[in-house]
Every structure is written in structure tokens, then in C-alpha cells.
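call fold(seq) -> C-alpha cells
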Amino acid sequence: MDEKLIFIEQNINDLGFHIDSVQTRQFFDYYLLLVEWNKVMNLTAITDFEEVVRKHFVDSLSIIYQKSMEDVDNMIDIGTGAGFPGLPVKIMFPHLKVTLLDSLKKRVDFLNTVIGKLDLTGVETLHGRAEDYARLGERREKYELCVSRAVANLSVLSEYCLPFVKRGGTFISYKSGDMVSEMENAKSAVFLLGGKIESVKYFELPGTEIKRSLVTVQKVNGCPAKYPRKAGTAAKNPL
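ret:
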């Protein structure tokens, strides 16, 4: 186990962090729960310890390439799945108030188990569709930062995510590979939703040959009341 804890420390510190022993243990316990629960439900195709550390934990924390997290007070993770990127970010930035939203109840049950085991505070889980929660007054345009590692094109993700972001806030989408074409195709949708594509950061995931990208969208105007459209519409008919 000591070697695994050292591996976690080294890989996360290589991003520029100074991880402490409590955080290191939290990541290790998170890994153990992920593997245990994955035996009875589909949380991830990645279960090898080193791959989980690099492809889930480190990848989630790569947000620091695009955002100074010390300056962020609250964040929502849309389509969080097994908690990526939201929970690793919360572990490394305990001051954050984090909301994790997922449409599958079993995944939310897993997240609640992790939160309890790791003694995390200031974390809220939501079970449901992003389109439904974004229409509710207490969620709409509330968050300084919205993140998503969900698999969908940027136009669709923007309709899911930008309604949650307050004016002046940020939406960051975790992506793979070259984003030039996808960003160009998403410009009009992002504009309609009150946003503006600000930048993209390309990088290679440390310890792998995986090409990753982080797309940053700034919320410059309010989101029109008609967005998001009803559940399922964005995926079937992107803006």
C-alpha cells in the first residue's frame, strides 16, 4: 500500500500540487471504493490502479491548466458519473462547495458512499437530468464554475451546462484531441446561451500518450429562458 500512496503523491505533485497525507489517503480510499463498486455496476472501464490515478485523478485535476481554483467558491459537475472531475477537484481544494449531478441513481448512491467514507463536507449530490435542474430558480445561473467530462459535443454540453453558470462565470469542458472544428461548430450555440469560447488548452496526460484538451467558455450574458430545452432535445437536435 505504501508504494501506491507514493505513486498517488508523485503523480499529483507532478501537476504542481503539494498533496498532504490526508488527501493521499482519500484518493486511495476513493480508488478502493471505485473498484469494489465497479464489480456490481458499470462505473468505469478503467480499474488498473496506475491508470485510475493518471486517467481519472490526474486528468480531473488538470483543470488547473485553465483555471485558478483557489479563486472559485462553488462548482457544479454535470454528468459526473463516478465523480470525475468533481470529487478529485474537491479533495485537492477542500474550500470548494461542489455539486455533483448525474442521471443514474446507482451512481449517485456510489458518490454518497465515497463522500461519507472520505469525510468530505460541502459536497451535494443531485439525481436527475441537467435540463430539469437548470430550469429551477435555485440552480439556474448560480455557479461560478461548471465542469463536465461527459461524452457529448460542445454544442450539446453548452446547452446542458451554461444555464447553470452565473454571468462572469466559467464553463470548462474536458475533451480529447483537436478541438478546432468542434469549437467552430459550437460558436453559435454558445453565443445563443450567453457564452463565449475563450480558449482551449492542449496537453498530453502525464505518464501516457493520451492527447487531452480543456475548452474554456466564459458566461458573458444571461441565458435565455427557453434554454435548456426539454430533456433529450439537445442531443437529438443540437443548436
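The mean pLDDT is 95.
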